[in-house]
Amino acid sequence: MKEFKVENDYIIDLKHITKAYGDNTVLDDINMYIRRNEFLTLLGPSGCGKTTLLRIIGGFEECSEGEVLFEGKNIANLPPYKRKINTVFQKYALFPHMNVEENIAFGLNIKKMDKKVIEQKVKEMLELVNLKGYEKRSIDSLSGGQQQRIAIARALVNEPEVLLLDEPLGALDLKLRKGMQAELKRIQQKVGITFIFVTHDQEEALSMSDTIAVMDGGKIQQIGSPVDIYNEPKNAFVADFIGESNILEGLMKKDYLVKFQNVDFVCVDAGFGDNVAVDVVIRPEDIKLVKAEEGMLKGKVESVTFKGVHYEIMIVEEGYTWMVHSTAMARVGEEVGLVIAPEDIHIMKRR
């Protein structure tokens, strides 16, 4: 198992984190580090362990094994209030009997800070989340998006070094959620601290994150930038979970040459060995439709669905149904050719 050396830009270093409830292992030997000022997203389906990992970082749960290093010191046994970490939950947990100002100032009042300092800090936070002048508003008078901003302000006013966000956009409608994605990224860049964000929404993760950790079955399947995760998935789960993919069985005949659908294709991958069974991943938008006689493969259009910016076209070819995203229209029943460039063929070890 790889050991991570604590470097100057690592704020959190997780070593061999395991969490089990009886015979049920929720987290299985997690090793990863999180950099200062990074927007890192834990992404995965329900039950993959992402929220449990977030709660361990925040101190709301203890790990069965492992260490949580914060700036090089093990904080695994520290309670949440002693960590330089704050959390925004999906249910914002705002106090309905307090107004906006009182909600944001709650933690500062607990610390018995000077009233004028508290007033100034609350004002700064409201400006940060674009709710200047809302000090005296009641919580019940706010929209869901406004309540979320108040929850973020309340967490940030305590000046944490890390902010944890547990699916905070899940309760918002689609249009508001997209707006808040940009808003969260803006706030993170403005305050310059580490955000650790939990979601099951792939688009959300791709649009907001500096780094994505894809989780499944209590393990980290892949860590990387959004571009790397999307373009170079490490296994079939990642390829299938991040966006949409055509995943086929193939044979790596030799370096830079793979066979699938009974056709040899030049590719850009190497190092798998000769005549090795592999999985081949091809994104729907990377397939070019041409006349049947001009295609590397040819098939019959089974269905066409308009998706707004492109058509989703299902094409049956040699027993396999291809998904193709294209701005060009095709007709059901039409025979078409498929062209795939070498750099758009991604090879992975067989599942």
Automatic annotation (TrEMBL):
The reaction(s) catalysed by this protein are: ATP + H2O + polyamine-[polyamine-binding protein]Side 1 = ADP + phosphate + polyamineSide 2 + [polyamine-binding protein]Side 1
Describe the location of the ABC transporter domain by residue ranges. Answer: 12-242
**What Gene Ontology cellular-component terms does the record carry?**
ATP-binding cassette (ABC) transporter complex
Q: Which UniProt keywords apply?
A: ATP-binding, Cell membrane, Membrane, Nucleotide-binding, Translocase, Transport
Entry-linked CDD domains: ABC_PotA_N
Q: What does the record list as coiled-coil region(s)?
A: none
InterPro entries, from UniProt? Answer: AAA+_ATPase, ABC_SmlMolc_Importer, ABC_transporter-like_ATP-bd, ABC_transporter-like_CS, Mo/tungstate-bd_C_term_dom, P-loop_NTPase, PotA-like, PotA_ATP-bd
Known EC number(s)? 7.6.2.11
Top EC class for this record:
translocase
Q: Read off the SMART domains from this record.
A: AAA (SM00382)
Q: Which GO terms describe its molecular function?
A: ABC-type putrescine transporter activity; ATP binding; ATP hydrolysis activity
- Top-level lineage group: Bacteria
Q: Which Pfam families match?
A: ABC_tran, TOBE_2
Q: What family classification does the UniProt entry report for this protein? A: Belongs to the ABC transporter superfamily. Spermidine/putrescine importer (TC 3.A.1.11.1) family.
Task: List the NCBIfam families hit by this protein, alphabetically.
Answer: MMSYN1_0197, potA
Assembly, per entry: The complex is composed of two ATP-binding proteins (PotA), two transmembrane proteins (PotB and PotC) and a solute-binding protein (PotD).
Q: What does this protein do?
A: Part of the ABC transporter complex PotABCD involved in spermidine/putrescine import. Responsible for energy coupling to the transport system.
Question: Could you tell me what this protein is called?
Answer: Spermidine/putrescine import ATP-binding protein PotA
Q: Which organism is it from?
A: Candidatus Cellulosilyticum pullistercoris
